[in-house]
Amino acid sequence: MRIGLIVNPVAGLGGAAGLKGSDGTEVQREALARGATARAGERAAAAVRALLAARPDATVVTVPGAMGEAAARAGGAEPELAALAPGEPSSAGDTRAAVRALAAVDVLLFAGGDGTARDVLDAGPGVPVLGIPAGVKVYSGCFAVGPAAAGLAAAEFAGSTTEAEVVDLDEQAYREGRVSPRLYGTLTVPAARVRLSGRKTGSTTAAPTTVEGIAREVVARMRPGVRYILGPGSTTRAVGRALGSEGTLLGVDVVADGVPIGIDVSERALLDLVDGHEVAAVVSVIGGQGFVLGRGNQQISPRVLARVHELTVLATREKLAALGGRPLLADTGDPATDARLGGYVRVVTGYRESVPYRIVPASEESVG
């Protein structure tokens, strides 16, 4: 078995920095200036480890340097290298060239986000592909639920395939609070028993009073002296509005004693705001996927979560019902943090309404 591997080294770089994406050299420079660290290589290495654990005889075929070789070796592989010299830093053109250079593989794994999935689609791969989630948003359906799931799916591939959607956002519009996902096409992916993340679905048509009721319940539960982290999303934004603050739709805000003390903050700024205080985090569920951490809210990092005393999850009953009993997912990039978050949490579904619901690490939800 020959498994191809491509890594977008800058994927996800803008997440913890609060930049809501990583496209463009200016954004990448700003992310680094804000203390961001590239993690796509680490996530690709985790996928390689899972692949080799299940299929030790697999050959990893990749391209030199940060676009694959480094992650393959970190994951325990002695990779076969294609004849390609990607640029430093790599570009979308390098990704497309790498896809074409790795045409003679059984499955092609790529680590990145929705923009990387678009580049793979544009290259016209002639083999099944599967995404290792490493971007900021990861709304497309062609990604496994986590790195280990991607490696396992590749190891178990026996020829059966299906189609999965590739969607992406205009990142500049996204930063300005306009969410307009666009379907770009479909990719052929392994039809494996390993769960794919599925495409993010839009907000339900729940009555505004439902969201307002959720916000009222959260505000009613707030305690003096506690610093509350409000994650991205229309439901969490309603909490800020209930406190009299407009807040941000797609960023992370912090409030204390009913007053905003941080708006659209990065991970570094968030750490400064919560250090030495009692901290609670309020996050919402990504529709259709079930993620509560690790998708679009990387500012709430493992370092931040280590300081969080209480986690509150928000979702309408319709959004929970659409999951069909599947658990909520945490994919923070740190297995120990994900494991600590596992268990049952109260999900606020309305005013004076909540239900218990299970959260599991994405790595544990690989097979289903």
From TrEMBL:
Top-level taxon in the UniProt lineage: Bacteria
List, in alphabetical order, the GO biological process terms annotated in this UniProt record.
Answer: NADP+ biosynthetic process
Show the InterPro entries listed in the entry: AcoX-like, NADK, Put_ATP-NAD_kin
Q: Which GO molecular function entries does the Swiss-Prot or TrEMBL record give?
A: NAD+ kinase activity
Q: What is a single Pfam family found in this protein's UniProt entry?
A: NAD_kinase_C
Recorded protein name is ATP-NAD kinase
- Source organism (scientific name): Embleya hyalina
